[in-house]
Each structure stands twice: as C-alpha cells, then as structure tokens.
Specification:
This protein is an alpha+beta fold. Helices cover about 40% and strands about 25% of the residues. It is built from four helices and seven strands. The protein has a five-stranded mixed beta sheet with strand order 1-2-7-6-3, sandwiched between helices. Strand 1 and strand 2 (about 15-25) form a beta hairpin. Helix 2 packs across helix 3 (about 120-140).
Length: about 160
C-alpha cells in the first residue's frame, strides 16, 4: 500500500513543507522514484538523501525540491540543512516504528519546499526534521481524516487567508 503524508512546520521564511509518498519496490512508487531521479530539469534535480556523505538513509529516500534553486544560499540550505533534516526525520520515523516492515523493500519520495528567502540554517534543519517525521506519521495513520477536512471551514495557508 502507498502512504501519502503532508506536514508544514515553522514560520516563513524558514518553514518546512514536506510531502511524502512511501511504497514498495516494484510498484508505482518505484516508477515515480526512478523517473524523478532520472529526469532533472532546470532548478530541480532530485537526489538520494544521505545521512552522511556515502551513507544513504533507509528506506532509500529521494529528495525532490519543490522550489527551484534560486541562488547559492538557497541551494546550500536545500542541499544542506533541509536534506539533513529530511535524513534525520526519516531515521527518527524508522526508530519510532512509524516506518516499519522490510525497510530495504521500501522507497520514499520526499517533496520538500525551502523558501528562497530562508535565512536560518538551524531553523530550516529543525523544521524539515519535524515536517518529515510528521508527514510520515500522517501517511502511516491515514491522516487527515475525511471528517476533519470537511469540518475545517475555509481553506487558508501561511501565504493566504481570506478576511
């Protein structure tokens, strides 16, 4: 079964918005994972998340940046603090049993948004850690519940709210 999760943590511009898709090798997640890795485009180059250089996280996780890289600082925050935060969040989720089973048979896609105006490396790291962990928890628990969505009132985000 494929698990889809979403989480938003922190305050702009250092907030993290992470979407996760977790599934088994041999299924549609593997096709999406390999396709994203093999088809970089201007400003977007998916890469395998490493816990440390040469030590990829388990399950194999593909980092897909949702915001096109906008300058050296944005790139450094994306490939550095945000990627390390995703690595830590995935590892924490495995340690907690949120992601379980045959870890080597799973593939994870983490679609990660880093604001081009982000300016706090530690906040980007901590927010991406928490957002990754929370997105994986949401996916594992099938959240949000339909009733919660239908009873939530008007849609809004950190970037839009109707008066």
């Amino acid at each position: 079964m494929t698990q889809v999760g979403e989480a938003f943590v922190g305050e702009p511009p250092n907030a993290a918005h992470v979407n996760t898709v977790l599934g088994r090798k041999g299924g549609p997640v593997e096709t999406a994972w390999a396709t994203a890795l093999a088809t970089p485009r201007q400003g977007h180059a998916a890469f395998v998340v490493a816990f440390q250089p040469g030590l990829a996280v388990k399950p194999a996780t593909l980092f897909v940046n949702k915001a096109a890289i906008d300058g050296e600082r944005h790139g450094t925050l994306t490939w550095g603090a945000a990627q390390a935060g995703v690595a830590r969040g995935v590892t924490e989720a495995v340690r907690a049993g949120t992601v379980s089973g045959d870890i080597d048979d799973l593939l994870l896609i983490a679609a990660v948004w880093v604001d081009p105006n982000a300016d706090d490396e530690d906040a980007v790291y901590e927010n991406n850690t928490a957002a990754t962990r929370l997105a994986l928890e949401a996916g594992a628990r099938g959240l949000p519940r339909l009733e919660d969505v239908l009873s939530a009132g008007e849609p809004w985000s950190s970037f839009f709210r109707r008066p």
